[in-house]
Amino acid sequence: MIPAGFDYLRPATIAEALELASLDENATYLAGGHALLPERKLRRAGPSTLIDLGRIGELRRIEILEDPAPPQPDGSRGPGRVVRIGAMTTSAEIEYSPDIARYTPLLAEAAAVISDPLIRNRATLGGSLAEADPQGDWPAVVLAAGATVHLRSRDGDRAVPAREFFTADSEGHGTGFTALRPGELLTAVTVPAVGARTRSTYLKRMHPASGHAMIGVAVAATFDTGETCRECRIAITGTATIATRAVRAEDRLTGSRVTPDTIEAAAGAANNGIAFTGDAFGSGAYLAELLPVYVSRALSRIASGGTRQ
Question: 236: which residues sit within 8 A by CB, 6+ positions away?
């Protein structure tokens, strides 16, 4: 079907993109286009102006930077590096990046199971986060990785922790809500480089047609020399209107060794605080039965080494 008419603009710099967006309150940015273009094809109400970010090289870089974070309460400073990933970096580029595999292996593992190769070669990290699809993979992964989302407007830059980026509407529900303000552009994501004692994994039940996560569990856990879990992040996608942390399950693991008993306790607590939604492919009740199973499987991977062997 022929889409409804719209203006198409292709800036070469971030500053130019922000300027163009300021001229039309109904403009939107075009990244990979896997969500936006099908909507246009169906002639549903949409933006009157598309601002294609494909020419902006600054948005498509993977860099290793020195970590500016202050010392932690225990005096440690972590591995001392962060990985900066431009918003227009594709899932395939993340999947095959040696720097990603070395410093943030959770992202490389997740990228490899996103949909199919055709999608991975076009879909972008920033586009996925800005869309905040409740069945998207990247929201849960950046939550588990402890990432920070970087936003820019004509007024300046903002850095928003991933745990604060995905939001619900004023009534506590709804999909696709984020901390992005009108006129802002998501420019990059930074992820702390992990040390030798951090293990991570991403496990999902993939919808066979769309490749979306019917349910996805991302885990990152850091251990001390005695194999006690010092810090744990468990993030869930596919079950509710936004990706979320399974805080009660994290609490069951933190300060303990990952044994069959603690895995069972954490999996049993995973559903607490999650408002299961469901859809035509899996009811909320079905997802509530499935989540503890996938949390248990993910934690069993962590116990056996995760992506850090």
Answer: 140, 215, 216, 217, 243, 244, 245, 246, 270, 274, 291
